[in-house]
Amino acid sequence: MVREVPVGSKRSRQSKSSGQSSRRVSETKNTPLGKPARSAQAKQIARLKQKLGLTRVRLAKDISALKRAHKALQQSEEKFRFLADNVPAFFAYIDANERYQFVNKRYEEIHETTREEMIGKSIREVYGKENYQSLRAHVETVLSGKPVSFEWSGALRSWGAHRLSSRYEPRFNAQGKVGRFFVLTTDVTELRQAEADLKPNQQELR
User: How far apart are CA 180 and CA 203, in angstroms?
Assistant: First the structure.
């Protein structure tokens, strides 16, 4: 037996209200954005596209600048190496750990080895224990931040004993500490020998 619900009863009113709410939710979901909302969204998308475009342009410029800087560095390194290899002096730079970072061609000749074999080695490894003792105090001086010039005698492999004049120049890093130092050494063996040979003759003339 089906029980009829009076039209004006409470249960009938609840059912009617529920149906109206469902229709409103459905209508809300299917309603497209209004013109103001679509306009604001379009402007936001345009701003994002513009920002993305500017970012890409800046990135492209940065990459180009980096490539130019790298090319300039390569060219400057090539020029530096060319100049360093064509001076009669022994030229090198050494880091704060007393290890060679660069040597010129003259260094290769006097030590009878290749540049690649010397890079990364310590002064003691390159010159030997006895020669290093002659250099140690001067190395400590330049690493303390003071330039130093000196003459010393060393036995250089098959070259035998030589008289050398060296200049150490410190180079400071961003923290104000010595990060490396440059070495410029000239062979003054013949000069000092000529001076020694000339001295007796000068004394005879007096």
Answer: 46
Q: Which amino acid, residue 30?
A: N
Q: What is the pLDDT of residues 178-206, one digit of tens each?
A: 999 999 988 888 888 888 877 776 565 56
**Residues in a beta bridge with 164:** 152, 187
Q: What is the pTM of this model?
A: 0.61
Distance between first and last Cα of the chain: 154
Cβ-count burial of 95 within 10 angstroms (0-12 exposed, 13-18 middle, 19+ buried)? middle
Closest among 100, 164, 153 to 130, alpha carbons compared? 153
CA pair distance 164, 175, nearest whole angstrom: 33
What are residue 114's phi and psi, to 5 degrees? -95, 160
| Token pair 């923290």 in the structure block, residue | 175
> Could you identify the residue written with the tokens 């490396």?
180
